[in-house]
Structures are given as C-alpha cells and as structure tokens.
Write a structure and sequence with these properties.
globular, Rossmann fold, 5 strands, alpha/beta, five-stranded parallel sheet
C-alpha cells in the first residue's frame, strides 16, 4: 500500500509565484492547493486536512502588528504547520509561535525543498 501524499496549501497573491511554487511542490510528489487570498485558504482549511500551509505575507513586517493580515490563517495553526515564505527583507524578524519557520525569498530551490521535506517529516498532520 502506498503512503498518502503530503498535502500543502500554498497562499500567494502573485499568480505566477503561486503557480510556480505549486508546480515545484507537485513535481516533488506533494498535493497542493493554491490560493491567492488568505480568506479562501481559511475557508478550505476549515473543512480539509492538510500537512502544511506555505504563505507569503504582503503586510509590512515593520508595522507594530505585521501579521494582522494572516490572523485568520494563524488561528488554524493547530490544524497544520504554518510556514511563512516572504521576500520582505525583515520577514525573518517576525516572531510568532504559530509560525513554524520563515523561508526568505528568493530561495535556493534545493534548500527550499529540503526545508519543506524536513518540516513534513518532523511534524505530524493534525487531522479534523
């Protein structure tokens, strides 16, 4: 019996980036669910089990509450690992216990895929 594919929600407001990241993950054997809006991803997560959520934030991290735009998504952190993948120069400074890891962009493809594989291997999916 084959092992179930790991399921990853990808959230990015830029269509080409969303398609590219989803493609790269699917090529590695993951099942992806791409969303351009956090709200749509949250709706999906309320009724579907996934292993990891990979999200970009367009909210500047230098504001007092940089993750406000991700609040609804972070509220579901008990259902899946949340990973922030951002090109903002201060994204790695974001501190929130619900975010498992911050992956800066641009990224080295091999490093990116290794990080995703490590996170998926280390964290059990929370199934509803």
């Amino acid at each position: 019996m084959s092992q179930a594919r790991k399921r990853i929600v990808v959230v990015d407001p830029v269509p080409t980036t969303l398609e590219l990241i989803s493609y790269l993950l699917e090529r590695e054997g993951y099942e992806t669910f791409p969303f351009a809006r956090v709200e749509d991803a949250v709706d999906f997560l309320e009724s579907h089990a996934v292993d990891l959520v990979l999200t970009e934030t367009i909210v500047p991290v230098d504001r007092p509450r940089p993750l406000d735009g991700l609040g609804p998504l972070l509220g579901l952190a008990d259902r899946a690992q949340i990973v922030l993948c951002s090109s903002h120069p201060r994204a790695s400074a974001v501190a929130d216990a619900r975010i498992r890891e911050v992956i800066p962009r641009p990224f080295d493809l091999n490093d990116f895929l290794a990080r995703i594989a490590r996170l998926l291997a280390a964290g059990a999916s929370v199934r509803k």
